[in-house]
Amino acid sequence: MKKKMIALAIASMASGAALAQSNVQVYGVVDAGVAAIKADGKQTAFKIESGMLRTSRLGFKGTEDLGNGLKALFALEYRLNVDANQGIGGVYTTDAAGVQGSTSGMARQQLLGLSGSFGTVAVGRMNTTGFDWAVKYTVLGASIFDVTGNNAMAAGSRINALGDIRLSNTVAYKSPTWAGLHFDVNYARPIEQAASGDGHVNVWLLGAYYDRGPLSLGVVYDRFKGSGTASLALGSLAFARGAGLPAPATTIAYDDLDMKSLNIGGAYNFGFAKLKVTYQNDKFNTLASNKVWGVGSEIPVTAKGTVHVVYSKSSVNTLANADSSGFSVAYTHNLSKRTIAYAGYSQQSNDSAGTAGIWAASPTAGGNVNVLAAGLTHMF
After folding, report:
1. For labelling alongside 321, which of 24, 89, 214, 359 has CA 20 to 30 A away?
2. 203-207, 240-244, 313-317: lowest mean pLDDT where?
């Protein structure tokens, strides 16, 4: 019996030594609440929603020390819809009768990489530097109150915190930080004609960020370029559904597909408030450029409470009278380090031909969308 106990103790020590060389973390967000959504021309919808402030998710990430300053890293992250009968990674679908269902799992991130004094290199599916930029400089970014993201999507921009600007088949590099400055480079081939091999898409994103004291600046250039004689339907490209862009059913040769986007953001923390501004310029093929800007502030009002205000406007040149604007006011209250209560109001407005909405709620042309929402976020 004593020998068995000694053997078990030795095995336990060996296991502990092995585990000490690596670090694996289970993390996630559970977010749910209620919302009243009114789009002009449609009835008011009262909904229980998941992920209104932060997307509900479950993730696993970790590192292993390889020695000499080199580490292996991985991340596996999946969406959760806590208000529906869906498994990990489920996404919403709605049939012709309005019945809600789900599709197969959707990964937010699945990546593997190495980090060291040279920076970090990763491959797989991941957040792009464009997504990081949008979350960093957009007040209420990626939430139901993200009017800047609403306007960006309506203008056909790929770079916003609401759109799916994660990329599959991606190689990413993040540089070390020198005096507050670092660079990101992303390259992806997310679309390819496997059958014929005569069409694919190259995506480049270049990001530069400067963070020093209360000041933060960031710029991202995005190029989405097709190559090949095969054709694809524009409906398969979420960003190509903006006002005045070709209809989703339109097919286009890969060689004729070219989208460029310049995104500039800044933030300054005054102590009593943090100011954030964004400017975006997007050009699809030979069409005129569409522009979106946003300005907002995060204002601490108590030790645990913050007021968030944001205003955004688009200038759509691909379609006459399709400009849109929106504003949001929200309050977040930290119930603990990991639990946040929130409530807010958003309004999205359109010129006579505009149909910018909030989440899946779109008005008739020239209409408004109003949202009143409240909920709870828990992080673990």
Report:
1. 359
2. 240-244
Residue 99, CA distances (Å) to 47, 74, 91, 95 in order:
14, 37, 14, 5
pLDDT in the model for residue 240: 62
Residue 267 lies in a domain: yes
Residue 203 to residue 215: CA distance in whole angstroms: 30
CATH number at residue 219: 2.40.160.10
Name the 3-class secondary structure at 4. helix
What is the rounded distance in angstroms from the CA atom of residue 265 to the CA atom of residue 295? 10
Range of the domain at 345: 121-379
**What would the two tokens of residue 198 be?**
């005569």
Q: Two tokens at 276? A: 């954030």
Q: Decide: 112 and 24 in contact? Cβ < 8 Å.
A: no
Structure tokens belonging to residue 255: 């060689």
Residue 245 clears pLDDT 90, i.e. is over it: no
361 within some domain: yes
Q: In this structure, which long-range contacts are made by residues 86-90, counting pairs with CB atoms below 8 Å and at least 24 apart in sequence? A: 88/58
- Count of structural domains, the chain: 1
**From CA 257, how far away is CA 154, in angstroms rounded?**
19
8 Å CB contact between 280 and 148: no
Tell me the CA distances in angstroms from 373 to 37, 331, 343, one per residue in order.
8, 11, 6
% of residues, the chain, pLDDT over 90: 74
Among residues 267, 146, 126, 276, the alpha carbon closest in space to that of 205 is found at 126
Identify whether 131 is part of a domain.
yes
Q: Report yes or no: 228 and 193 within 8 Å, Cβ to Cβ.
A: yes
Q: How confident is the model at residue 104 (pLDDT cuts 50, 70, 90)?
A: very low
Q: Is residue 360 within a helix (H) or strand (E), and if so which, with residue range?
A: none
Torsion of CA 136, 141, 142, 147, to 10 degrees: -150
Q: Which tokens in the block code for residue 310? A: 């944001």
